[in-house]
Design brief:
single chain; mainly alpha; disordered N terminus
């Protein structure tokens, strides 16, 4: 179970993010008190932005205050409950610093600088690895088209077990694509943009449910349509219809969902300057309410409306801590919510606003810079995957027509030249449709993991690739029908000549 939870945490992108949040949070609290015991007690409150770690710190505080444990030893005792290696390593160093009676503020300053440097260097290494994998992935997509066509032609050789050969080829391609997409996912964990806390708008909740349910629904619809129309001679019904019907709804849901993502991204762009201004204004004016009057003179884009709500809540008597936390939730941004929660707790415990605001400013800028680089890498993958997906659909349509024409010739020559065997049309449709879905899912998942922002990216990319595949297949099939008619006319002429002989 421990290994499974670790994998789930890595898939969700929680591992590295929790460590970064913890360092920034402890640094902010260290400006409020030089006593490590006070800092751990502050971090043990249920509303702390470090999630489950607050429960562990609560146990440490209870062990120290109620049972007389030494703080450094109490920290050591709870390390085995923490799965994140970076967090575990930091708490070990924190325990050692307490043993050596080091200044906690100086210790946290060094830890923050170390984390900031690692945030850039580690990301660059991971991004370089992903770029190399994108080149390999493009080669795999190209080989997939070549391999699928080759195996289909080989399967037409007389004596070959068509069903087993095509099934083995499809499974092999599926395994290779899955492994490659998982390698990309492992190399660059996601960086979620939308937060999962409460007060999420109902529209966004419905979109998330539609996005989650849309994936299995699209598979079920495709299988159903393939079962009904798979034996049809019309390629549009057999191939294009399942792709379009399953792809278009996902495309619509993903596109609407990405509007929320883009809205959160726009808020995050204004976050660094806002947090720095807020910290400086609080230190000058002495309260968040007075600071809001000062910073509202500036323009923070989509944040302006939320800032007015924050000011109004403070004027109504809300606590600074609660008002800032509510402000973070209303942004729908995970980064803004986390940074607002850290600022709220830091100011609540008397931390220096200017120092905390500067730390949040620097951290947010690095996160946003990393996001830009991720978007560039995702664009690189998309520029490869989309044309290859469309090309494979066009090739599939052309080969389907050629195989149908070849079947007509094989039926004519099978009595005196039994070298080839016609492949049933349902086999061809199922084969190409399964590979089209496999490449679309692998490309969409890789695109989502490189962007790392939201599951809506996966839904949108998958819907777009499936819709494009269906549209291109329909167009290529109609164009190829002229080739088929010409071939059929040639077949009729050959039949008449054989009849005369």
């Amino acid at each position: 179970m421990g290994a499974l939870k670790k994998i789930i945490a890595e898939v969700k992108g929680e591992a590295g993010a929790l460590y970064e949040l913890l360092i920034l949070y402890f640094y902010a609290l260290s400006t409020a008190s030089p006593n490590p015991r006070d800092i751990l007690k502050m971090a043990s409150t249920p509303s702390a932005p470090i999630r489950d770690l607050s429960q562990i710190f609560r146990k440490v505080s209870e062990a120290v205050e109620r049972w007389g444990y030494e703080l450094n030893k109490a920290l050591r005792y709870v390390l085995n409950k923490i799965r994140d290696r970076d967090v575990q390593s930091f708490l070990k160093r924190l325990s050692d610093s307490m043993t050596l009676s080091l200044d906690i503020r100086e210790f946290m300053r060094v830890e923050l600088e170390r984390m900031m440097a690692s945030l850039v260097d580690e990301f660059e290494r991971r991004l370089d690895r992903v770029k190399k994998m994108i080149d390999a992935y493009s080669a795999i997509l190209t080989s997939t088209a070549f391999l699928s066509v080759s195996m289909l032609l080989i399967a037409s050789i007389y004596g070959i077990n068509v069903n087993n050969l095509l099934l083995s080829t499809a499974i092999g391609i599926f395994i290779i694509l899955t492994l490659m997409s998982l390698l990309i996912a492992h190399s660059l964990p996601p960086d979620p943009v939308l937060h999962e806390e409460g007060h999420c708008p109902e529209k966004l909740k419905l979109l998330k449910k539609a996005s989650v349910l849309g994936i299995p629904a699209s598979i079920a619809i495709s299988v159903t349509l393939l079962t009904i129309f798979g034996a049809e001679s019309d390629p549009i019904k057999a191939m294009s219809l399942p792709l379009l019907v399953s792809g278009v709804p996902l495309l619509v849901v993903g596109r609407i969902g990405l509007r929320w993502v883009n809205k959160s991204r726009e808020i995050d762009r204004n976050l660094p300057s806002f947090m720095k201004s807020l910290g400086d204004a609080v230190e000058v004016s002495g309260s968040v309410k007075s600071a809001c009057k000062l910073i509202l003179m500036n323009d923070y884009g989509p944040m302006n409306k939320l800032l007015k709500k924050l000011k109004k809540r403070l004027e109504m008597g809300f606590s600074q801590r609660l008002a800032l936390q509510t402000f973070g939730r209303e942004t729908i941004s995970k980064l803004s919510y986390s940074m607002s929660s850290i600022m709220a707790d830091a100011l609540h415990y008397g931390a220096r606003g200017s120092i905390v605001g500067k730390a949040i400013h620097d951290y947010s800028l690095r996160k946003l810079e990393n996001r830009k680089k991720r978007m560039q890498a995702a664009g690189m993958l998309w520029g490869i995957a989309l044309p290859l997906q469309a090309a494979f659909s066009a090739i599939s349509a052309l080969i389907s027509v050629l195989m149908k024409t070849m079947a007509a010739f094989i039926n004519l020559t099978s009595s005196w030249l039994p070298l080839f065997a016609p492949i049933p049309e349902p086999y061809i449709h199922t084969f190409f449709l399964s590979i089209t879905f496999a490449t679309a899912y692998a490309s969409a998942f890789s695109f989502y993991r490189i962007r790392g922002d939201s599951s809506f990216s996966f839904t949108y990319a998958l819907g777009f690739l499936l819709a494009v595949s269906g549209a291109v297949y329909a167009f290529a099939s109609m164009v190829s029908q002229s080739i088929l008619r010409m071939a059929m006319n040639l077949t009729e002429e050959i039949t008449s000549l054989l009849g005369e002989l």
